[in-house]
């Protein structure tokens, strides 16, 4: 385990080290809500941020396994391609925005627009998510063990949304689907991958796109 | 009754200026379809433009430079504020962002070939970077858009500069739209969407709102790309003084300002024609913003929207821009609107020079299409050659005008070299009306 301390080394130097290493275990100390921390990593490193992180923590991650022992600001793991990011606290808005691969786990709650424009990654939130989550989400899965805010899955494409708690309201073109055995298998596997063993896959509801907005039609104008 | 033998008890049939032929056809089209009109290209209405400005040229009080003998530089460096690796271009005419999806792969390759031959840059678009365009573009600007379609950190690192797109001149405040017929398997795969569905691009970025957030987003992009690449911010011309000020505040190396004449692949006609301001009206407040912040020439200004000739290039630079970008003109250079295609345009209800159904994907020139048979019509090598020729002419024309004004570099052109031909242009540019020392709004009058 190598220790990188933001009190003694600037952000640029710490990111450069992490971006250039090929393997190993790293701990970042005194993160103090620093923005753009551990961004653009490409190798299968294990990185632990021991504290809170600011905006875009672990942004565009490729292959690295990043744990954040604290809360994170806007856009954690945005556009992640692969690897995993585990937030032990809560996440602000746009968590996992546009992420294309890998797994984002949030132990606490996530703010508005969680999984916005999701492009293939999996997100598991142990708590609740804010409004407009999975807005225009294209593919991948969003698992919400708590409740979802207003306009869940608005203008959704092919992302699956699993919710255990209450949904305040569904967005345009998002509808509840019948839970298929395949859906249940995906859900169970994601809960397992997220290390969540005390919440059962039963009792979740699954939501997806009604696909009525896939081709512009005047009769749907009120939904636009 | 003809005009010569009319019944004097009646007036001639007369068209309304308000309800003219085109307006009537718009109402009839709306009534028949129930859907707003979507088309490609930029505004078609007549607007105050660079034609409303004239160069004064040198005479007794200024020495001209000798054409063909005395050097007049055209090179430009973009991204000198923060980037470790600014971009060096031989000509101040760049190629604007246009997506693979909106354009065929052949058209993107041709743009890369032409721009590279001329020593300038080309730009990706919504949908990401194709290997073809990277291979054929010596200098490639990577657009970072609200949709993030095809956004890949590996491509980000392969780019020579990053352009954060806030908006474009054809539709400031609007997102994108690529209709299903242009979503081929390859386009769908790059964008991670089902084949054949209408593809909507968001109008706001998914993970930041406002200039304070953008500053942090730029920090992230710089951290991921080792602070090497110039960061451009592109805005559609609407409130240029404030938008350019905020772009500078957010940390831009370069600002790109696109006037309402700038084209789009597919947008509502009502948006194209009624939102945003002409580039002529936008440049002065943009330059003013840079000057007020002490950042003119430190943060470079690239302007676009209706650049057609070397005169337009020279006038934009004289008003204070560092470079220009062309889109529609580049497509015309590749072969769009060719008279050779008149009969095929007629089959689509258009004529050479009027074709704007770029959203349909049936472009007979093989440019704004994903149909493999149509796309094959464009030879990327020949198209690239035509674009290189055109870029060369634009550059030489700008040099000719600069020399006539006694300038040894096109960037030495200045507002003092220009006058306005109309009151509107004088008011917008604050250049004196030709033959006077006055412009509307001049203090003291």
UniProtKB/TrEMBL annotation, chain A:
<dbReference type="InterPro" id="IPR012061">
    <property type="entry name" value="Glu_synth_lsu_3"/>
</dbReference>
<dbReference type="GO" id="GO:0016491">
    <property type="term" value="F:oxidoreductase activity"/>
</dbReference>
<protein>
    <submittedName>
        <fullName>Protein glxC</fullName>
    </submittedName>
</protein>
<dbReference type="InterPro" id="IPR036485">
    <property type="entry name" value="Glu_synth_asu_C_sf"/>
</dbReference>
TrEMBL record, chain B:
<dbReference type="Pfam" id="PF01645">
    <property type="entry name" value="Glu_synthase"/>
</dbReference>
<comment type="similarity">
    <text>Belongs to the glutamate synthase family.</text>
</comment>
<dbReference type="InterPro" id="IPR002932">
    <property type="entry name" value="Glu_synthdom"/>
</dbReference>
<dbReference type="InterPro" id="IPR024188">
    <property type="entry name" value="GltB"/>
</dbReference>
<dbReference type="InterPro" id="IPR013785">
    <property type="entry name" value="Aldolase_TIM"/>
</dbReference>
<dbReference type="InterPro" id="IPR043578">
    <property type="entry name" value="GltB_archl_type"/>
</dbReference>
<dbReference type="GO" id="GO:0006537">
    <property type="term" value="P:glutamate biosynthetic process"/>
</dbReference>
<dbReference type="GO" id="GO:0015930">
    <property type="term" value="F:glutamate synthase activity"/>
</dbReference>
<feature type="domain" description="Glutamate synthase">
    <location>
        <begin position="82"/>
        <end position="335"/>
    </location>
</feature>
<keyword id="KW-0560">Oxidoreductase</keyword>
<feature type="domain" description="Glutamate synthase">
    <location>
        <begin position="364"/>
        <end position="407"/>
    </location>
</feature>
<protein>
    <submittedName>
        <fullName>FMN-binding glutamate synthase family protein</fullName>
    </submittedName>
</protein>
């Amino acid at each position: 385990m190598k220790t990188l301390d933001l009190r003694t080394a600037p952000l640029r130097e710490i990111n450069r080290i992490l971006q250039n290493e090929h393997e190993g275990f790293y701990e970042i100390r005194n993160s103090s809500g620093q923005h753009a921390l551990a961004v653009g990593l490409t190798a299968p490193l294990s990185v632990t941020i021991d504290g809170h992180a600011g905006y875009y923590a672990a942004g565009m991650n490729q292959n690295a396994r990043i744990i954040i022992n604290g809360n994170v600001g806007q856009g954690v793991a945005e556009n992640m391609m692969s690897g995993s990011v585990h937030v032990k606290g809560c996440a602000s808005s746009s968590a996992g925005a546009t992420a294309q691969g890998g797994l984002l786990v949030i132990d606490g709650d996530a703010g508005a627009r969680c999984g916005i424009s999701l492009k293939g990654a999996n997100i598991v939130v142990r708590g609740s998510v804010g409004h407009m989550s999975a807005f225009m989400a294209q593919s991948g899965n969003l698992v919400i063990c708590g409740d979802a805010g207003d306009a869940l899955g608005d203008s959704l494409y092919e992302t699956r949304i699993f919710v255990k708690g209450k949904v305040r309201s569904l967005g345009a073109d998002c509808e509840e689907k019948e839970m298929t055995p395949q859906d249940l298998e995906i859900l169970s596997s994601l809960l397992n991958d997220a290390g969540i063993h005390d919440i059962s896959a039963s009792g979740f509801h699954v939501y997806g796109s009604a696909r009525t907005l896939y081709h512009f039609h005047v009769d749907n104008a009120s939904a636009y | 009754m003809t005009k010569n033998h009319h019944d004097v008890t009646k007036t001639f049939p007369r068209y309304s200026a308000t309800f003219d032929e085109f307006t009537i056809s718009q109402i009839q089209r709306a009534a028949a379809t129930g859907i707003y009109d979507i088309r490609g290209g930029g505004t078609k209405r007549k607007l105050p433009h660079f034609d409303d400005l004239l160069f004064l040229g040198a005479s007794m009080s200024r020495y001209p430079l000798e054409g063909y003998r005395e050097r007049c530089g055209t090179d430009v460096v973009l991204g000198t504020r923060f980037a470790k690796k600014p971009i060096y271009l031989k000509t101040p005419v760049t190629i604007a962002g246009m997506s693979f999806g909106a354009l065929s792969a052949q058209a993107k390759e041709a743009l890369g070939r032409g721009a590279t031959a001329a020593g300038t840059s080309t730009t990706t678009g919504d949908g990401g970077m194709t290997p073809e365009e990277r291979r054929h573009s010596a200098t490639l600007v990577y657009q970072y858009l609200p949709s993030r379609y095809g956004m890949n950190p590996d491509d980000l690192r392969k780019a020579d500069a990053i352009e954060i797109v806030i908006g474009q001149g054809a539709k400031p405040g609007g997102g994108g739209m690529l209709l299903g017929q242009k979503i081929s398997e390859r386009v769908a795969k790059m964008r991670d969407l089902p084949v054949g569905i209408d593809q909507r691009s968001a109008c706001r970025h998914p993970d930041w709102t406002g200039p304070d957030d953008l500053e942090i987003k730029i920090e992230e992009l710089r951290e991921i790309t080792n602070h090497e690449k110039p960061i451009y911010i592109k805005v559609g011309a609407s409130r240029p003084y404030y938008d350019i000020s905020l772009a500078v505040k957010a940390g831009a190396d370069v600002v790109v300002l696109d006037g309402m004449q700038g084209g789009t692949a597919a947008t509502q006609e009502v948006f194209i024609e009624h939102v945003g301001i002409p580039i002529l009206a936008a440049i002065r407040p943009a330059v003013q913003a840079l000057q007020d912040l002490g950042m003119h020439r430190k943060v470079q200004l690239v302007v676009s929207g209706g650049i057609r000739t070397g005169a337009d290039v020279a006038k934009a630079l004289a008003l204070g821009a560092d470079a220009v970008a062309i889109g529609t003109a580049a497509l015309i250079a590749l072969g769009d609107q060719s008279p050779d295609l008149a009969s095929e345009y007629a089959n689509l209800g258009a004529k050479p020079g009027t074709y704007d159904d770029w959203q349909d994907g049936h472009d007979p020139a093989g440019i704004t299409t994903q149909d493999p048979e149509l796309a094959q019509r464009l030879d990327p090598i020949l198209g690239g050659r035509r674009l290189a020729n055109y870029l060369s002419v634009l550059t030489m024309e700008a040099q000719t005008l600069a020399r006539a004004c006694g300038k040894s570099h096109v960037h030495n052109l200045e507002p003092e070299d220009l006058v306005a031909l109309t009151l509107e242009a004088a008011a917008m540019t604050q250049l004196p009306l030709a033959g006077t020392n006055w412009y509307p709004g001049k203090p003291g009058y």
